[in-house]
Write a sequence for this structure.
């Protein structure tokens, strides 16, 4: 499953790498709302929450739907500015219908374009649908959606005020610490783009982003099949320190594509393709293969030894071992006329510590 961005005939100057204070603040707010997604920053998140004034903490909980599950498109600028204030000024220039639609798509869930036409601000059935979806997500979210639809100007001002308070409370200090790291990443990306072209530049962004063989599409490995176009606008790539492991893409109709990617870390582990993860989960879905893995976790075994341990036929064991091996969860070593199978613990661990614990019990 992929997201495809059409860039056919797009001038090279409309493919840009730039840092965005607003996008990075949004990444931090997501980190605060979902610290479990960001174990490396869990301590920082806890420290920030502990120091937040109660009134600001309540404001963040009130508006967290704009950045918790997915980020509202207006929080990822297509034309980044040097300062947060300038980017917030740009958000203020968005008309109410565009702002409210983007906010409701994020807060109420569902596919992009849920409320694009007609507008929930002017069409009663669309408004009721938006409130119904918000109600299903809980009373706090319902209240936010009601206020947004009743008083968009007031809610927009309150959201901006909340972001400005976050800047004072914790973001300005964080931005000062990471600005150099972001600038270094951008210098490398723009140099690759200028000297070697888009393909190598995309490869340096993430293993989940590639240039299609036709050169006319950027392909992003995502959990849905979607398509958008950069024709007439361009694509902006925004680095993030606090966004890891997320790869966020603005792809809604009417919005310029924006890709927020995690900056490279020293000696990073290469990302595992989605099809590999799917293959491994499918391999683990069979209870018999889980039993075989529990035995292999205790040491290398041959097909015959596994068949004897579980009272199975060697051909049956061989079929299951072949599935596990294709998924990369087993390694083999020939010992004379025997082949010994060994559990690939690092790759199994990457799927989850609970799974590893269950296998090793």
């Amino acid at each position: 499953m992929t997201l495809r961005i059409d860039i056919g005939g797009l001038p090279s100057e409309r493919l840009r790498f730039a840092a965005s204070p607003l996008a990075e603040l949004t990444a931090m707010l997501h980190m605060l709302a979902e610290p479990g997604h960001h174990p490396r920053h869990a301590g920082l998140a806890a420290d920030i929450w502990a120091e937040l004034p109660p009134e600001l903490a309540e404001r963040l909980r009130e508006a967290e739907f704009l950045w918790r599950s997915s980020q509202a498109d207006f929080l990822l600028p297509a034309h980044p500015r040097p300062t947060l204030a300038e980017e917030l000024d740009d958000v203020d220039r968005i008309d109410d219908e565009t702002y409210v639609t983007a906010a409701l798509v994020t807060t109420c869930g569902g596919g992009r374009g849920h409320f694009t036409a007609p507008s929930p601000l002017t069409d009663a059935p669309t408004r009721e649908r938006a409130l119904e979806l918000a109600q299903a997500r809980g009373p706090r979210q319902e209240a936010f959606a009601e206020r947004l639809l009743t008083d968009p100007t007031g809610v927009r001002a309150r959201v901006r005020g909340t972001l400005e308070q976050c800047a004072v409370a914790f973001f300005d200090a964080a931005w000062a610490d990471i600005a150099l790291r972001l600038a270094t990443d951008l210098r490398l990306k723009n140099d690759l783009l200028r000297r070697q072209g888009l393909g190598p530049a995309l490869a340096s962004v993430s293993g989940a982003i590639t240039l299609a063989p036709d050169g006319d599409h950027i392909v992003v490995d995502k959990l849905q099949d979607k398509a958008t176009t950069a024709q007439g606008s361009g694509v902006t790539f925004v680095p993030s320190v606090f966004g890891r492991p997320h790869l966020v893409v603005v792809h809604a109709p009417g919005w310029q594509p924006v890709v927020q990617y995690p900056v490279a870390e020293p000696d990073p582990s290469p990302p595992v393709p989605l099809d590999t993860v799917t293959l491994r989960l499918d391999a683990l879905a069979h209870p018999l293969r889980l039993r075989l893995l529990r035995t292999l976790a205790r040491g290398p075994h041959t097909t015959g030894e596994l068949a004897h341990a579980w009272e199975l036929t060697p051909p049956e064991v061989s079929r299951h071992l072949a599935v596990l091996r294709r998924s990369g969860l087993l390694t083999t070593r020939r010992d004379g006329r025997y082949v010994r199978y060994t559990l690939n613990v690092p790759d199994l661990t990457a799927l989850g510590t609970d799974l590893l614990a269950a296998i090793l019990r």
The chain is about 50% helix and 15% strand. Strands lie at 2-6, 15-17, 209-211, 217-221, 226-229, 235-240, 248-250, 258-262, 330-335, 338-343. The radius of gyration is 24 Å.
